Amino acid sequence: HLVSTVPPKAMMPSANCGQNGLYPGSEEGWQVYSTASDPDGRCVCTVVAPARNLCKRDPRNQQLRLLTEQVQNVSQSMEVVDLRTSRDLQYVRDSEPLLRGVDGHLHTYVASPRTLTSKTLQELKGQMSQLRPLLSVVEQYRLDLQMLATLRMELLNLSIILTAIQEEVGAYDYEELQQRVLLLETRLHSCMNKLGCGRLTAVSNPITVKSSGSRFGSWMTDAMIPSSDSRVWSMDGYYKGRRVLEYRTMGDFTKGQNFVQHLLPHPWAGTGHVVYNGSLYYNKHQSNILVQYHFRSRSVLLQRSLSGAGYNNTFPYSWGGSSDIDLMADETGLWAVYTSIPNAGNIMVSRLDPRSLEILQSWDTGFPKRSAGEAFMICGTLYVTNSHLAGAKVHFAYNTNTSSYEYTDIPFHNQYSHISMMDYNPRERALYTWNNGHQVLYNVTLFHVIQSDG
Ligand SMILES: *[C@@H]1O[C@H](CO)[C@@H](O)[C@H](O)[C@H]1NC(C)=O
Ligand SMILES: *[C@@H]1O[C@H](CO)[C@@H](O)[C@H](O)[C@H]1NC(C)=O
Ligand SMILES: *[C@@H]1O[C@H](CO)[C@@H](O)[C@H](O)[C@H]1NC(C)=O
Ligand SMILES: *[C@@H]1O[C@H](CO)[C@@H](O)[C@H](O)[C@H]1NC(C)=O
Ligand SMILES: *[C@@H]1O[C@H](CO)[C@@H](O)[C@H](O)[C@H]1NC(C)=O
Ligand SMILES: *[C@@H]1O[C@H](CO)[C@@H](O)[C@H](O)[C@H]1NC(C)=O
């Protein structure tokens, strides 16, 4: 038997929503429950509004108002059906004994027609007239069934609209979710970097990736983490260069194919350039100005003087070449290695803000720059080689975290005997070197202790 019930008023989305949030307890978005019948034989339709404040999102307001009205219409119709069916049901119940009586009489008279008297016929007619309204009840049921079919259709339409709205809500939440994922990813990366950080203990055998350019130069990949950038940049020479070659991949660099050229508006000095977060950071020729050149927009975003820093081949590494200012990046950010007259030529290391090129913090390592072959940074520790020539070793380490130094003795194979550039890429855990016109890679071994609370 078909009887219906109205969705509980508290669960109905209200047309003027906006006051004190919405309906507590429903957090899953719009839900339409419609069952054929409950244990009492009643048709139940329930619409639960989501807990989120949808009112704030204007484009959906109109749709929601329409939806609300439709739900209310369905509910009203259901109420009508409910009222009528319960009344009719009562009528049918009341008529049941009558029907049984008539049925019994008819059977008797069919079996023995003689017993049918005019009196009993009169009685039967009376009972029949009492039962006649049942016809209209049956008729009403037919109409109700049509109405129910319409209601069912409307409910179906409703659920389609609800699905559409849910998808919109889903799209909104997706962005939110994406933000959270990104944040999580960043935190994960910094955590991984901390876990993955350690003290340099060994340098692998070299692999010569390519032989190109002059004796002096630099080449690199983006040193920022995270980055999916696979481009390789090459800058030949140390004096007044302006031409940067950008290769799509390491494979293209090796084969010398698929490259574009960038012509820097200001020439460079030395080989201490670094690519970080899609920008080239370099020392402007005959100055201590640092330049940030953005590859995608092909424009200079920033110029700032590294105050006090020596330049113009005043305080180079042992090989010369205007290598006064060496920029680099490690797991912890962007750094500048240089020296100044007040520091008596000892290596200074400064943490830079990549967005402003301002110095965030500086350390005086006490190591004379003219005695250094090259320097590179790993996990906040500066490593200095004692020569650019054959037999060079990683000789000195300065830990910026503890502001302390130690002498080290980490050999590496310098097969072309003239290293004019040596930088660590934290993403690849590799040392990039330019050795006498050869582009050479080394892997590094880091020793780290992971602390546990056990
Ligand atoms: C709800 O019912 C009213 C009156 O029958 C009608 O005018 C209106 O269009 C209906 N609304 C919807 C959304 O179906
Ligand atoms: C349901 O949607 C269809 C297609 O949009 C429409 O033709 C039909 O009239 C709707 N029915 C009801 C009861 O709203
Ligand atoms: C990286 O570059 C993007 C824009 O290209 C910028 O929004 C972001 O702040 C930069 N991050 C760092 C650490 O420099
Ligand atoms: C840089 O050094 C060269 C050669 O020693 C010299 O001619 C030039 O004037 C210097 N430029 C600056 C800005 O110090
Ligand atoms: C820095 O040093 C402190 C104690 O001196 C230590 O707890 C911390 O883990 C160190 N951080 C890094 C990145 O080495
Ligand atoms: C560094 O290690 C990776 C992974 O083991 C290897 O594929 C790569 O060839 C190594 N590079 C060098 C220079 O040894």
TrEMBL record:
Keyword Secreted: yes
UniProt cross-references to InterPro entries, sorted A to Z: Noelin_dom, Olfac-like_dom, Olfactomedin-like_domain, Quino_amine_DH_bsu
Residue ranges of every copy of the Olfactomedin-like domain listed in the record: 196-448
Protein name: Olfactomedin-like domain-containing protein
Main localization of the protein described in the UniProt heading: secreted
Top-rank taxon: Eukaryota
Keywords: Coiled coil, Disulfide bond, Glycoprotein, Secreted, Signal, Synapse
Protein's cellular compartments: Secreted; Synapse
GO annotation (BP), single: signal transduction
Chain segments annotated as transmembrane: none
Pfam families: Noelin-1, OLF
Disulfide links within the chain: 197-379
A GO CC term assigned to this protein in UniProt: extracellular space
